[in-house]
Amino acid sequence: HVHIHTYMLSITTPGYLDDQNRGCIDWSEGLLAYGAQHMVCIVQPSTPPQLLQCLAGHMHNVAHVAFAPRETGAPSLGGEGQGPLLLASADVTGSVHLWDVLRGALLAQLTAPAGGGSGSDSGSGGILCLHWLLSRPNHLLVASRAGTLVLWQVSAAGRAATALWQSSLTESPTLLAIDRHVADGGRIAVHTARGALYQLSVLPSEPPSAVGASCSLTRHVSASGAAYSPAAALQLLYSPHHQAQVYVLLPREVVLADLEAGLPLTSVSLDRTDHPFWQLLLPACLPGMLLGLHTDGCLSAWLRRSDGASAGGRGRRVHFSYRSMAPLLKGPGSALRAVAAAPPAHEAFAGISADGRCWVWSLACAGGAAAILPAALP
What we know:
Distance between the termini: 26 Å
Order of helices and strands: EEEEEEEEEEEEEEEEEEEEEEEEEEEE
Strand order of the largest sheet: 1-2-3-4
Number of helices: 0
Helix content: under 10%
């Protein structure tokens, strides 16, 4: 059952989001960051949300943001004695900036080593993802669309950074996923233009190395009989249930693949009357639930279940059952540009609509059901 309540806060924001800001959002360390044209907005995701900072420094539209993890509690503006709350941002040209969020200060701009594939000279390729290693909070991984990975060690003050290693993938990735729960650093799942999937292990001390088997989706056929199209893949996400399983999002299907077994396990297909997917969410407060965002502003919910033995006797057979679908937003300018699930301690997710409003939906989880209660910042 879905219940919707809206709260508004009258405050000036940078305005409409550009399509290049799509997917540029991070909710961590008690704050929400998102890209709005060439600026980075910092929001307190309360009810209603509060705009705290607008960080100006990029010359082009911002495409990625990522908070550095901290060991202390939730930050507050003007907090003393905690050190800076660092945020990395990257624009569409590949320029990477480091910010002191609480003071609204630009600390440094990263210049990739020769051939690093990031920086203002990288052209239309730009950055594919930014990721801070949880085991080493001051280590930032920058992955370019050209297939280059660079691991930076950032000083405690955030004003200097040293490239520890640089590695080039054998072919340019189209999508990357980060497994944030691996203690030693992280794992990266890579999706290529050929429809191949494979996994890399990331360590602070050395360039990444392959882990487990690869998986090709080129022979996968959807329930409607459509052949797999690598160019149509929209998103890659690690499953919270198994460190070698990833979700691949397509406009009309979600494929669950096992990177150790080297094969797709199951898929979720839309009815022909449903609008296409554009993003997936895996809320920590609903560990068995897959939430799909659709191009018409609706949210669909799918419950993961397992029973019996899978093909070949490996593990249990996985399938998904459709639970519900409900509209999140309607009206001019209400199309969502970016959505992020809250950290595990919070039952919520946030989204930024094309007209610049920030929305926070509360997931009231009780008895296996979820009620969605949004708040908005216009």
